[in-house]
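cron nightly-structures :: item 1 of 1
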Amino acid sequence: MKAHEIREMSDEQILQELMALERKVFDLRTQAATEELTVSSELGKARRDIARMRTILRERQLAAKADADGKETATV
């Protein structure tokens, strides 16, 4: 999943997709441990997607905090 696709999603959608990907990573790790994993690159792709989603959520949190801090100093 590309970063611009994630940015178009709402926070709730990202969290839902994040939970699904974390479950997928768990399943892939289980498959890898039992030697049933056929495409080993799937695990890395899923982990990178999780990292992208967490990064975008964190960017949004920091932007919201910066906006809140900016409004507080403007009213003082």
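cron nightly-structures :: done
The helical segments are 3-7, 11-33, 41-75.
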